[in-house]
Amino acid sequence: MKKRVNSLFVLALAGMLSFTSCKDNKEAENEPAEPMQHEMHQADTEMDHEGDMMDQSGGEMAMAEFSDENSSMMYQHYLEIKDALVATDAAAAKKAAGNMAGMMEEKNDISSIAENIASIDDVNKQRELFSELTAAMEPALKEAITSGKIYKQYCPMAFEGKGDYWYSNSDQIRNPYYGDKMLKCGRVEETIE
Question: Which of 40, 114, 157, 175 could staple 97 via S-S, CB 3.0–4.6 A?
Answer without folding.
Answer: 114
